[in-house]
Amino acid sequence: MKGITGFGHAAIKVKDLDASLAFYRDKLGFPEMLRLHNKDGSTWLVYLRITEEVFLEIFPGAETIALPAGTPTASITCA
User: Fold this and answer.
1) Which segments within the chain are labelled E, that is strand?
2) What is the pLDDT of residue 75?
3) The pLDDT value given to residue 68
4) Which residues are bridge partners to 32 per DSSP?
């Protein structure tokens, strides 16, 4: 049986987009590839490149997103 040999992207929801970008983009050096906006002009998604083939999607607004009961979650804190 062949196992997982890689992945293309991971997505995280964050409460503080600026703090998250300061960590992932500025400290870790993942360059911003693109940014998509909602109709009201607010940021919907920021796409960072980890390697040539692996990307990180950052979605702001985690404090307002309700997940269905029983959904597994992980917390990431950027200090």
Assistant:
1) 9-14, 32-37, 43-49, 55-60
2) 53
3) 62
4) 48
Short-list 22, 65, 67, CA closest to 44: 65
Helix (H) or strand (E) holding 17: helix 17-21
- Given a cut of 50, the residues of the chain with pLDDT beneath it are 76-79
Angstrom distance (rounded) from CA 79 to CA 19: 7
**What is the model's pLDDT at position 77?**
43
C-alpha pair distances (Å), 42 with each of 8, 52, 64, 73, 79: 26, 27, 14, 25, 23
Q: Are 19 and 78 in contact (CB under 8 A)?
A: yes
